[in-house]
Design brief:
The complex is a heterodimer of chains A (342) and B (261).
Chain A (H helix, E strand, L loop, with lengths): L1 H8 L1 H10 L1 H12 L6 H27 L7 H15 L13 H23 L5 H20 L17 E2 L2 E2 L3 H22 L3 H11 L1 H5 L5 H27 L9 H14 L6 H20 L4 H15 L3 H20 L2
Antiparallel strand pairs in A: 1-2
Chain B lengths: L1 H10 L4 E12 L2 E12 L3 E5 L6 H9 L6 E6 L2 E2 L5 H6 L2 E3 L12 H10 L16 H12 L15 H13 L5 E5 L7 H12 L6 E5 L3 H7 L2 E6 L2 E6 L1 H6 L1 H8 L5
Parallel strand pairs in B: 3-8, 3-9, 6-7, 7-8
Antiparallel strand pairs in B: 1-2, 1-4, 4-5, 9-10
Helix pairs in contact in B: 4-5, 4-6
The chains are: A mainly alpha (342), B alpha/beta (261).
């Protein structure tokens, strides 16, 4: 009754809703209300952590799904932002720590990540496919060992600890609920930006370069410059995730940017699906849940085996990840509901 | 002949759309192109004929910069473009189509043409979605109509038929105010009706747009060109009007009377 009247009366709002999509509104509302029921553990360790890794994998999805460039260096880029937060802000390691306020530190950290990402991109875009993967793996490994062995800047294998999320507006942003909303805010913004950007001029050029770089050159595009710019944008996403990651952990060490984490991000992106920006978040939830609870199911020695088997099963059934699986099930569900209907 | 070339080099001006001086391309021991001298006036429409392996597509690749010539110079409207990367040549008004369609399978037809228009204008890096009133979008719509693809405006390129993909190839080359186009076998694999449409599209191009067309179908080639260059084993071997070429006994021996006859 009243709902229908409201919907009829306010036409622009209806358009606005149509534009965003009912699925997004339902999902967004559920995520906004989740802290009413979720425990602190689930809010931070599962939901918050998944969203951080979701944004990290989204940066990979942007490169791989739209640009056809597979990278293993996304955690390296996030790590650069994390180390920048530790070094430019405050920590308790007595090595470096300029003590700058967070609102100066964060833009610097994200900018450092984006520029580093562009640099990694500039080095790796001269290769394709498996070779890009190998070059980025080499960069990730080299950065890991450099951080581990360098004490002047990275404080060696112990890294930096005692890093605090900021406190402002009377809120300690590392408390479970505020931190959850911080992660949610970043996740929604990144997701919306990538979704919108996929139909922007640059988004289309990136997909066209993925499909046929030679033709793009023959249309007047500087293909390398476009690829490097994609790396720069992906670096912004990874950098923002890196800032939240260091606030979440309260510390950053070479272990944060290890090759195992780099592979986790690739697995998250592949399990979720690289076709749509929601994929990385779906993948992140699945992988984080498994990493957290597989130990309870199969014990500490075998939980990686279980994760590996689930990964194999998903990739075997659907090369497009869970998104592809959903794409195949959806028409069947629609048919079922048609049959069940009056 | 050498003096003549030297004189041409000195006098080079914007009168020629395309000038090739001694262009050669070697792949190891294989000589794909050798000593190609060519002058094509602005607005001229030229057919390049020759059997498979004669070096026609290699000639196109050298002009567009897909790979650099081993020797020789290439000038485009008087400017030496020999050392420019492909995208810089395109921004000066050069376009090409490919023998095997080179398209964007994941994009729609309209978006592909839009990108072709945007490629030679500003805002190539724009993070905003183009509005329907965007100047390049409007251009894309009009090119869409010019090549009769309006019914497939929002169709995914991967799902187009071969003939439609060939039409899109041409649409991409027409985008963004070209001054000179290289058509590489645009009629390959087209039905007789589609070939007629192709001839109509080529003949309807604005007079200032010149082109070179590589075409095995002599019927098409001779109807859309004013002048013909014959290639054989990487060399230019004969030039003349379509009638002269058709009547030339040597040409008939090598090309028309051969397996392509």
């Amino acid at each position: 009754m009243s709902l229908a009247t409201i919907a009829d009366g306010v036409v622009p709002q209806q358009n606005w809703l149509d534009k965003i999509g009912a699925g997004h509104v339902i999902l967004g509302t559920a995520l906004l209300l989740y802290p009413l029921v979720g425990s602190d553990f689930f809010l931070t360790q599962i939901a918050g952590y998944s969203m951080i890794f979701g944004v990290l994998s989204l940066s990979l999805m942007l490169l791989a799904g739209y640009g056809g460039m597979l990278s293993l260096a996304q955690i390296t880029v996030a790590g650069i932002a994390a180390y920048a937060v530790a070094i430019l802000g405050s920590n308790n390691s007595n090595v470096l720590g300029f003590g700058w306020p967070w609102w100066i530190v964060v833009p610097f950290a994200v900018a450092a990540a984006a520029v580093s990402s562009a640099l990694i991109g500039w080095i790796s875009v001269r290769t394709e496919g498996i070779y890009t993967l190998m070059i980025t793996l080499a960069i990730a490994t080299a950065t890991f060992y450099f951080a581990q062995q360098n004490y002047a800047i990275f404080n060696g294998h112990s890294g930096y600890a005692g890093i605090h999320a900021p406190v402002f507006w009377g809120i300690d942003w590392r408390d479970p609920k505020p931190f959850y909303y911080l992660c949610l805010g970043l996740a929604i913004l990144s997701y919306a930006a990538v979704l919108y950007g996929s139909r922007s001029t640059f988004g289309m050029t990136l997909q066209a370069i993925r499909d046929n770089p030679r033709r793009m050159r023959a249309l007047g595009y500087h293909v390398t410059a476009h690829k490097v710019f994609a790396w720069f944008l992906a670096g912004i996403l990874a950098g923002l995730a890196g800032v939240l990651l260091v606030w979440f952990n309260g510390r950053v060490s070479p272990g944060t940017i290890g090759v195992d984490v780099a592979i986790d991000i690739l697995i998250i992106a592949v399990i979720g699906g690289l076709r749509h920006p929601i994929g990385p978040f779906v993948g992140a939830i699945v992988v984080i849940l498994m990493q957290t609870f597989a130990i309870d199911i199969v014990g500490a020695e075998r939980f990686n085996t279980l994760i590996g088997l689930v990964f194999l099963a998903i990739v075997f059934v659907s090369p497009d990840g869970i998104l592809g699986l959903w794409g195949r099930i959806k028409p069947h569900l629609a048919q079922e509901s048609l049959r069940a209907g009056p | 002949m050498t003096e003549n070339l030297a004189a041409n080099r000195l006098q080079s001006s914007g009168a020629y759309a395309l000038e090739l001086d001694g262009v050669a391309r070697h792949f190891g021991a294989l000589v794909a192109l050798s000593g190609i001298d060519m002058r094509i006036a602005a607005g001229e429409r030229r057919a390049v004929l020759g059997s498979n392996g004669a070096g026609k597509t290699t000639l196109f690749n050298a002009v567009t910069g897909d790979f650099l010539p081993t020797a020789g110079r290439i000038r485009f409207f008087g400017e030496d473009i020999t050392d420019l990367p492909p995208h810089e040549r395109i921004r000066r008004g050069l376009r090409r189509t490919y023998q095997i369609s080179q398209l964007f399978r994941g994009l729609s037809v309209l978006d592909s043409i839009f990108l072709a228009c945007r490629g030679v204008s500003r805002r190539r890096f724009s993070l905003l979605r183009p509005a329907a009133s965007d100047v390049n979008m409007v251009q894309a719509e009009s090119i869409l109509n010019a090549v009769h693809l309006e019914a497939y405006r929002d169709t995914l390129v991967a799902t187009l038929s071969h003939g439609q993909q060939r039409q899109l190839e041409i649409a991409l080359a027409l985008a963004g105010a070209p001054r000179f186009i290289l058509f590489d076998e645009p009629a390959a694999g087209l039905s007789p009706t589609e070939r007629r449409d192709l001839v109509a599209i080529l003949n309807a191009l604005p007079k200032h747009i010149g082109y070179i067309i590589i075409e095995h179908d002599l019927d098409v080639a001779l109807r859309v060109s004013e002048y013909v260059s014959m290639m054989h084993n990487g060399r230019l071997f004969k030039e003349g009007t379509p009638q002269e070429i058709e009547a030339d006994p040597e040409v008939q021996e090598i090309y028309l009377g051969g397996k392509h006859g």
